[in-house]
Design a protein that fits this description.
It contains 15 helices and 15 strands. It has 519 residues and is of the alpha/beta class. It has 3 domains: 336 residues, 3-Layer(aba) Sandwich (Alkaline Phosphatase, subunit A), CATH 3.40.720; 107 residues, Arylsulfatase, C-terminal domain, CATH 3.30.1120; 30 residues, no CATH class. Strands 1, 2, 3, 4, 5, 6, 7, 8 and 9 form a 9-stranded mixed beta sheet that branches. A 4-stranded antiparallel beta sheet has the order 10-11-12-13, covered by helices on one side. A hairpin with a 2-residue loop joins strand 11 and strand 12. Helix 7 packs parallel to helix 8 and helix 8 runs antiparallel to helix 13. The termini are far apart. The structure holds calcium ion (CA). The site of calcium ion has 6 residues, from loops. Its cofactor is Ca(2+).
Length: 519
């Protein structure tokens, strides 16, 4: 008999919840706030880092779902942003590398972007911070405060300025009486040594109030002891690297305080209860094996999504395999706008998907879920195309340009961590790192890892007879994804791709290299 009151309670609760949702929908427009970190990683309390202080991101996580298996589709700034804003991998939207300066990459003119699509659905869009994508006509926000009309540090790191711009945008959205999408794209915690070395390796002194550094009034800098930082397995245990991480933490704490200010603006504008909030980062942290790599430190991203809807999961973790490619369909789903995609012959869906259902209920556990990645350049000189598939257990990486040393970007090159690796290697000093520089530079064509047994991706299982069927299934699925997303690198490096009436075909070049696509 004790079950009856319980059931009644549940029914009453459901009835109350339904009415709440309906009245919410009647009274409010639906809005989205995307907060993007630049090269942000897992140096966050919510992801179990006990040293780096991030109370605002941790509080956001308490109000939403914490994704433990979120991945970018490309480990590079502009390509990742283009993928986020189009729902397509870099080889499909054309953003093969960095947009700015001599790199000069742009998406194809015919691609559909999130801001342009929302414009046609009467949603007002705004971007504050680092944009780093083009062409301008393809990525047009109604309100733009970016590096194109400001110094990137002012819109990407000066959290007081970011707060005031957020206020300005929210006022504009209020006056226009429209739903809004606000994309706050911090430049923190990106490195600084290559562009503004006077502010320290992570711009951690920019606006700190020290002499000559300027002052960000809302920022309370937090400084960390290098002996106390949490050292990830892929960074060498040396004082130079630890000091580099300590500087990174100071900048992450500025990002965190900036997020606190933005969320406070949202609350004071009365939008806490009608706005979907998404926090993630474009690519892995700027350390060896991180940014520009397809190892997990380069591909895995923090992701928190907080839904204001009644019944939404709060302070819960999701273990679903999700991609930054899923952000666009998620946002469109939130506004109830269809996400148009070309039909494919796939048996199972490897296409981007809305994550909104996960905010209500954890999907059934599946070993079969996969994410895909595609990288071609970072800087213009860094031609190192890679394609990858990662399931929960396995990762297969195809290094198309495997004969060449893995390229090092300017920003990483000048970093204290990389200089330390270089100097110790040159002078034959002890290097307490999990790889040698030579291993890091020279990678085989295929890398297969059992992530569950070998999370640091140390033991390449490519060609192992006992995994032959696993490897061939991963290769076939990766190839299918490449075909479905019109990958011009489908046949590389062993064959040339020809477009024929019935689709692309690969013609062998007799290089001696086996190629993936045999059709
Ligand atoms: Ca980045």
């Amino acid at each position: 008999m004790a079950r009856v009151p319980g059931s009644v309670y549940v029914l009453l609760l459901c009835s109350f919840v339904t009415e709440t949702v309906l009245s919410d929908k009647a009274d409010h427009k639906r809005n989205v706030l995307i907060i993007l970190a630049d090269d942000g990683g897992f140096e966050l309390g919510v992801y179990s880092n006990k040293i780096c202080q991030t109370p605002n991101i941790d509080a956001l996580a308490k109000s939403g779902v914490i994704f433990n298996n979120a991945f970018t589709s490309v480990s590079s700034c502009s390509p990742s942003r283009a993928a986020l804003l189009t729902g397509t991998p870099s080889h499909q939207n054309g953003m093969y590398g960095l947009h700015r300066g001599v790199h000069h990459f742009n998406s194809f003119d015919a691609v559909t972007s999130l801001p342009n699509l929302l414009k046609s659905h009467e949603v007002i869009t705004g971007i504050i911070g680092k944009k780093d994508v083009g062409p301008a006509a393809l990525y047009q926000f109604d309100y733009e405060q970016t590096e194109e009309n400001n110094h990137v540090n002012q819109v990407g790191r000066n959290i007081t300025h970011i707060k005031l711009l957020t206020r300005e945008f929210l006022n504009k959205a209020h006056n226009d009486n429209k739903s809004f999408l606000l994309y706050v794209s911090f430049h923190d915690p990106h490195r600084c040594g290559h562009t503004d070395p006077q502010f320290g390796p992570f711009c951690e002194r920019f606006g700190s109030g020290e002499e000559g550094m300027g002052l960000i009034p809302d920022w309370h800098p937090i400084y960390y002891q290098w002996e106390q930082v949490e050292l990830p397995y892929f960074i060498q245990d040396t004082e130079a690297a630890r000091r580099d991480i300590a500087a990174q933490y100071t900048t992450i704490s500025r990002l965190d305080q900036g997020i606190g200010l933005v969320l406070k603006e949202l609350e004071e504008a009365g939008h806490l209860n009608d706005t979907l909030v998404i926090y993630t980062s474009d690519n892995g942290i700027p350390f060896p094996s991180g940014r520009t790599n397809f190892y997990d430190p380069g591909l895995r991203e923090p992701m928190i999504i907080s839904s204001p809807e009644a019944g939404a999961r709060r302070n819960e973790a999701s273990y679903a395999m999700v991609s930054l490619l899923d952000v666009m369909p998620t946002v469109l789903n939130w506004y109830n706008i269809p996400f148009a995609q070309e039909e494919t012959n796939e048996v199972q869906s490897d296409k981007p998907k809305s994550l909104l259902p996960i905010l209500q209920k954890e999907p059934p556990f599946s070993e079969d879920e996969a994410i895909f990645a595609s990288q071609t350049h970072h800087e213009i000189t860094m031609y190192y195309p890679m394609r990858a598939i990662r399931t929960r257990r396995y990762k297969l990486i195809h290094n198309l340009n495997f004969g060449m040393p893995f390229p090092i970007d300017q920003d990483l090159y000048v970093s204290p961590t990389f200089q330390d690796i270089l100097n110790r290697t040159r002078s034959k000093q002890a290097l307490p790192w999990y790889k040698t520089l030579k291993q890091y530079y020279y990678r085989p064509q295929w890398e297969l890892y059992d992530i569950r047994a070998d999370p640091a991706e140390m033991k390449n299982l490519h060609g192992k007879p006992s995994l032959a069927s696993v490897e061939s299934a991963l290769r076939e699925r990766l190839e299918r994804w490449q075909r479905d997303t019109s990958d011009a690198w489908l046949c590389a490096p062993g064959a040339v791709l020809l477009q024929q009436d019935h689709g692309p075909v690969c013609r062998d070049l007799d290089t001696g290299l086996p190629h993936v696509a045999r059709r």
